[in-house]
């Protein structure tokens, strides 16, 4: 975050690992690092909520923005990830059930490794089910037998 936009006394979000932490700013220090006018660095001093006794110094780039906004975004991102995982699990479950029905219909056991390229029926990408030529012949024979053709 731009150092000029960081307000003393405000609470901002910083990231520690995968977690967002509340960081209360006590000061913003700008230091020249060379002779050129653009040679400078910013350091933000403050405390992480829950650790009042220990003051930390972080780069202004480590300050993400107002904590409320980032906490809301992190919560929304977690919900979206959970929803996507639920959808993917549902698709994978449907593909697995289809494979079980296929194996039951042709009278073959379920393959031990459902992603094996040489299996008669296998899980493809994105929840698809792929049947090789041997599987197609056995499925056609089983369907013709059921239909008495």
Q: In CATH terms, what is the fold-level topology of the largest domain?
A: SH3 type barrels
Spatial order of strands in the largest sheet: 4-3-2-1-5
Largest sheet: 5 strands, antiparallel
Distance between the termini: 72 Å
Rg from alpha-carbon coordinates: 29 Å
Shape: rod-shaped
How many distinct domains?
2
Total helices: the number is: 2
Output the CATH class name of the largest domain.
Mainly Beta
The CATH architecture classification of the largest domain is Roll
Q: What is the mean predicted local confidence, pLDDT?
A: 85
Low-confidence stretches: none
State the helicity in percent bands: 25-40%
Strand/helix succession: EEEEEHEEH
Structural class, by secondary structure, is alpha+beta
Strand content: 25-35%
- Number of DSSP E strands: 7
Task: Characterise the protein shown here.
The chain has 149 residues and is α+β, with helices and mostly antiparallel strands. The chain folds into two domains: 3-71, SH3 type barrels, CATH 2.30.30.140; 81-147, no CATH class. It is 37% helix and 30% strand. The chain has helices at residues 67-106, 133-147; strands spanning 11-16, 19-32, 40-48, 55-59, 63-66, 121-123, 129-131. The strands form two sheets. Strands 4-3-2-1-5 form a five-stranded antiparallel beta sheet, covered by helices on one side. The protein has a two-stranded antiparallel sheet with strand order 6-7. It is rod-shaped and about 90 Å long. The termini are far apart. The mean pLDDT is 85.
